[in-house]
Amino acid sequence: MLGYLLHKVLRKYKSNLIVHCDSNMEKTIWNPLQIFDYRANHKYAVLILNSALQWNDDTLLQIWKKALVKVTVDGGTCRWVDYLEKQEIDVFDGHHEECIPHLISGDMDSCQSSVLDKFKDMGSIIIRTPNQDRTDYTKALVELKLYTKKKNIELSKIYVFVESSGRFDHIMGNVNTLFKSEDLIGEIQVIQVSSTSLTWILRPGLHSIIIPKVLVQNSSWCGLLPIGTPVNCIETTGLKWNLNNSSLQFGGLVSTSNTYDDCSEVTVNTDTPVIWTMGIKPLTENINNSEVSNSDS
């Protein structure tokens, strides 16, 4: 009798998962092209972490200039200065106020004190965050929230510039901060931006990801990664290899090296937080071409 009851409970639980996966709920919209559309009027902040800035043109500079809040994190401050020098900009010459960070935060073990002093004299707010139980990235989101609340600034997105290669522990620490981001900053979309990829977290629910035409044409890669916990039920459309009420977990199925099914929209319906990551190299290579526009999405 006990076995029969347990079987009924399990069947009901599985049924509820599938109903949740198939439910007609409001979509969360993600539009990667917005990051590179300098004419777009969306309210965002930029964070630059201590990672090599592998941007050879002025794309990052243009994104920075349009940001409502500009933050460099510890050694990311020197990375920003180095990038500006490659753009033939001396941020300390008094003629480039738009390049000065609003906030500089971190434990400051990777940033020269002379650089911090110069930025402080030019108006940057320096916030030392020595707590070693949190990463500088995590602490920067906390400080960003306090700053926007004090200044009465409303953000819709935060673009975090960090490369997705290098030390694996740093990569996983950054992913961990994505999982924490809702508790740290609220429901603002946090997107990690590298020179070749975008990565963010999809919370439980229905998501629509607008895919730029150039990425579809080049069969750019994408993936869904169940980091931290198995995904019990996930369903997608618009991918070459779609998931149909599937489960994802390490040691089982993981959706890597996927791509798009000649479609300008990918939908993901998930009952568990899952990482979405996508290649953008064809997009950044053609960002100044007229063919890369919102109408192509």
Automatic annotation (TrEMBL):
<dbReference type="Pfam" id="PF04265">
    <property type="entry name" value="TPK_B1_binding"/>
</dbReference>
<dbReference type="GO" id="GO:0030975">
    <property type="term" value="F:thiamine binding"/>
</dbReference>
<protein>
    <submittedName>
        <fullName>Thiamin pyrophosphokinase 1 isoform X1</fullName>
    </submittedName>
</protein>
<dbReference type="InterPro" id="IPR007373">
    <property type="entry name" value="Thiamin_PyroPKinase_B1-bd"/>
</dbReference>
<dbReference type="InterPro" id="IPR036371">
    <property type="entry name" value="TPK_B1-bd_sf"/>
</dbReference>
<keyword id="KW-0547">Nucleotide-binding</keyword>
<dbReference type="GO" id="GO:0006772">
    <property type="term" value="P:thiamine metabolic process"/>
</dbReference>
<dbReference type="GO" id="GO:0016301">
    <property type="term" value="F:kinase activity"/>
</dbReference>
<dbReference type="GO" id="GO:0004788">
    <property type="term" value="F:thiamine diphosphokinase activity"/>
</dbReference>
<keyword id="KW-0067">ATP-binding</keyword>
<dbReference type="InterPro" id="IPR036759">
    <property type="entry name" value="TPK_catalytic_sf"/>
</dbReference>
<dbReference type="InterPro" id="IPR007371">
    <property type="entry name" value="TPK_catalytic"/>
</dbReference>
<dbReference type="GO" id="GO:0009229">
    <property type="term" value="P:thiamine diphosphate biosynthetic process"/>
</dbReference>
<dbReference type="InterPro" id="IPR006282">
    <property type="entry name" value="Thi_PPkinase"/>
</dbReference>
<keyword id="KW-0418">Kinase</keyword>
<dbReference type="GO" id="GO:0005524">
    <property type="term" value="F:ATP binding"/>
</dbReference>
<feature type="domain" description="Thiamin pyrophosphokinase thiamin-binding">
    <location>
        <begin position="205"/>
        <end position="274"/>
    </location>
</feature>
<dbReference type="Pfam" id="PF04263">
    <property type="entry name" value="TPK_catalytic"/>
</dbReference>
<keyword id="KW-0808">Transferase</keyword>
